[in-house]
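User: I'm putting together a small comparison set for a docking exercise, and I want a reference complex before I start. The sequence is below, and the ligand is NAP. Could you produce the 3D structure with the ligand included, as C-alpha cells?
Assistant: Of course. I'll restate your input first, then give the C-alpha cells for the complex.
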Amino acid sequence: MKGKIILITGGTSGIGKETAQGLAMLGATVVITTRDAQRGEQTKQELIQATNNTNIDVLFCDLASFDSVRDCCREFLKKYPKLHVLINNAGIVDYHRRESKDGIENMFAVNYLAPFLMTNLLLDILKKSAPARIINLTSGLHSGTIHFNNLEFKHGFSGMKVYGHSKLAIILFTRLLAENLKGTGVSVNCVNPGMSATNLSRDAGWFSAKFFKLLAKEPSIGAQTPIYLACAPEIESITGEYFEKESVKKTNTETYDMDVAKKLWNVSKKYVGL
Ligand SMILES: NC(=O)c1ccc[n+]([C@@H]2O[C@H](COP(=O)([O-])OP(=O)(O)OC[C@H]3O[C@@H](n4cnc5c(N)ncnc54)[C@H](OP(=O)(O)O)[C@@H]3O)[C@@H](O)[C@H]2O)c1
C-alpha cells in the first residue's frame, strides 16, 4: 500500500483504529479523523509507535455537524493531492434519542448523513485518484424498511431499531453510488465487521456493555474485512456489494430496491444541503 493515501473516519477507537494500524503496517499514508483533538494526537503517536510508519495524520471532524464534515474535507483537500481509499467507519449507538448539532436524530446524522456528505464532497478527488475505493461500515443489524415518514424516529424510537435503520440507509447509498460511479474506476462496497469488543456499546449501560464485550471478538478481527476491502487486488472490480468475512453476502430485499435508494438519496441531499 506504499504511495496510497487512505482516509478513515473515527480512527481513535475500536475497528477504525485497528484498520488504521493494519493499513499503516502495509505502508500506506493513513489519515484518521477525531472529534477530540487531544485523543486524536495521542492515537496518532500510538499508531506511529506500533507501525514505524510516520505517514500518519489526524484531522478534526465531528460527524454530528455538517459544518465540521465540510471543514474536514476542505482541510483534507488542502493537504493531500490524492485519495485512494475512503473508509466511512465512524459510527454510534444511542440508546436514548439524541440530536446532532444540526438538530437531526443523531444516529441518522452520524451513521448515515455524515458519510453521505463526506463521500459526495470527496468524489472528485477519488475519481482523480482512480483506481480508488470507498468502504462503508454497516452492520448485520440493518433491517426493515426506510421510514420516509419518520426518518428521525420522532416517535417509536428504540436504539437498536434506529441503529439498524441508519445501517440500512448506508447499504442503499452504497448500491446506488456504485451505479453512479460505473466507469470511473472508483468502487464502493459496504462491510459488516461482525460483533467486535469496541466502545460501540458505551451508551448501553454498564452491564449490557460488559456483556456485549464478553460475547464479541477482538476489534482487530473486526478490522480484517475493512483492510481486505482496502487493499485486496482480486476485488478491484467488485462494486456495490455487502461483505462479511471477506466474502460477498446477500442482504434483505429492500437493499436492492433502487427506487427506494433514489428517493433516499434525494431526501439526503436536502438534509445535508448538497
Ligand atoms: N463493534 C461491533 O460489534 C460492530 C458491529 C457491526 C458494525 N460496527 C460498525 O463499525 C464501525 C466502528 O465502530 P466500533 O465498533 O469500532 O465502535 P467504537 O469503538 O465506538 O468506534 C467508533 C468510532 O467512531 C467515532 N465517532 C463516534 N461518533 C462520532 C462523531 N459524532 N464524530 C466523529 N467521530 C465519531 C468514535 O470516536 P470517539 O473515540 O471520539 O468516540 C470512534 O473513533 C461503526 O460504524 C459501527 O456501527 C461495529
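Residues 5-272 form a domain with the Rossmann fold fold (CATH 3.40.50.720). The longest strand covers residues 29-34.
User: Thanks, that's exactly what I needed.
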